[in-house]
Amino acid sequence: MRLLFYTKLGLVLSVLSILAGAFVRATGSGDGCGATWPTCKGKIIPTLSDTSEIIEFSHRSVSGVLLIVTMYIFINSRKLEKDSIARTAVNYLTFFVVFEALIGAVIVVFEWVGLNSSLPRIIAVPIHLVNTFGLLASYVILYKILENKLDSIKNLWDRNFTIISIFFLLTGATGSITALADVLYPSASFYEGFLDDFDKTSELLTRLRVFHPIVSTILSIGLYIESKQLQERFNINTNFLKFLIFAAIFLGVTNVLSNIVLFLSIFHLAMADLLWITYIYVSLDKVKNNLPTNCLLYTSDAADERSSVDLGGRRII
User: Fold this and answer.
1) Which of 19, 55, 216, 313 satisfies CB 3.0 to 4.6 Å to 29 for a cystine?
2) Residue-wise pLDDT tens digits, 96-122
3) What residue spans of 33-84 are helical by DSSP H?
């Protein structure tokens, strides 16, 4: 199915756009195209005369292609039934992608880039990153719906999924604040940075860095417990998810102890995105067969009697 192919493409482009944006922020190249959008220094195809311009234009190019692919998906989804779950997922997806473009435009036009440490930028950065989580989730959900021809995903939204998702968003928001602080107020060493985190005279952004490891630790523990429950209750293979949890922890700790290395920072973000994508994908396996997880399912035999079915270790009558 053509729509499935473009959904895969959009998901890949989404990750590339997020990582490119992180690279722009980490290198201070946000003003590479000046305060113009969507053009770069007033040109559709800039001269690419300096490194920051190349970096920023590359990010805009990937994001632009992502927007085009998403709009293609949106237009073609109008052929689907109006009340279908796939069409609803596309609507959410389109919202997140368009909103992502608008946030990027506002950040550029108001020059909340480079070494700008204003309050609006501090607010915009976490909103920008949290929105990318919604974008990625929408793409994964749409892909799973198309792949397995799902007509409902209501069983996805249980208590555990909601709590884990909230902590994912909090981890992303605090992580973006930490990354911004590392760019604006870099530390000479890990030890010096650790002291700055608890120094009342330090910048607010620097002191906010302590929240990211706290929230991410809670998320890691909760996510590991959830992965075991998914495996035990629904017979879902979560080995790769567990691997990603430990890999993300390892990269995060290594990056902090190394006093923030650009390559490790980008790799850590990539791992976080992959972890989020995998969690959404694995969680959707609960409903891929459209079988309720906590309600009654009736079957008939030759004598028209009720029989019970066992699903993932749970008894369904």
Assistant:
1) 55
2) 999 999 999 999 999 898 888 889 999
3) 51-77
